# Entry
Amino acid sequence: MKIEVNCERIRGNAESIVAFCAAQNIEVVAVTKGVCGHPEVVRAMLAGGVKRLGESRLKHVRRLREAGIDVDIMMLRLPALSEVDDVVRLTQGSLNSQVKTVRALSDAAQAQGVTHQVILMIDVGDRREGVMPAKAVSVAKQMARLPGIAFVGVGANVSCIGGVQPTHENTQLLVDVAEEIEHNLGIPLPIISGGNTSSLFLLANDEMPARVNQLRIGEGILRGADPNGRWKLPTPYQDAFSVIAEVIELEEKPSLPEGPILFDAFGRKPHWQDLGIRQRAVLDLGEQDLYVSGLTPKRSGVNIIGASSDHLVVDVTDAQPPVQLGDELQFAPNYAALATGMASHSVTHILKPIGV
# Structure
């Protein structure tokens, strides 16, 4: 199977998002983890006007550095104590919540003769990373006084673990915490990193608190879409990526399995509807390649039935045009399918360069 990537469309989406945010004095940190730091995709983001990148895995940061990409990179996943030396060496800043970790970053920064920027993450409701607001001033005081550390701001993240959506209220809570820190520490905080692609909805509805001046945007650039489908982003393309798989079997079969039903290869208990005899195609794609549930067929009349480790079964009875053995069927991936597919070693990446 293959993933086809149109870099010109990613460049166009980046340009649109950067302009949309700049109109409200918000910096875009382009999140590259969805493409595993693929250098050509990242160059398309940079060509669209992005000035700073965000990445969650050091191996992807190394990939970017080895490709000659030397712009500022922010470490998005909280650094592990075991990797602080590389975090300081490869990135200019990181999101943090643990004082012990920032002390270790401080030691690494002093040893390397550099200053490492730290943003304190605040949990405003989603219950992933971040300290609770009541602890923020105490934690900030300890982080801000460490040598080799530039305490530059606060950040928050929602809509990832808890499914909490960004609102004016929970984003304003982040701003309130920032201003409390400024008052107690007597220092300005130049960065208030207010969220991710889902937070663009607040901008569109004029609900973003005025002091938020940074957003970390991945899906909005890569897919040109709001994760929750609430509105159409000001992006020209929603189809920069296509998942392509080949038909390796084409047979008419009963739609109901025959025999006692237990669990499938991934521990799920499927439920079937009797639709009679249907034409089914088996494709060379499976759950081991990517998150199959995140695929939408592009050919009319094709419907996904299910998948095992390395086979995808689709109903093609009503497909237009009709499906033939050896055909390549295309699917639109959501963010989960894109991220897992780009990380898969069994997937071939085909890139159309900028300008094509």
Summary: The two ends are 22 Å apart (CA to CA). The first helix runs from residue 7 to 22.
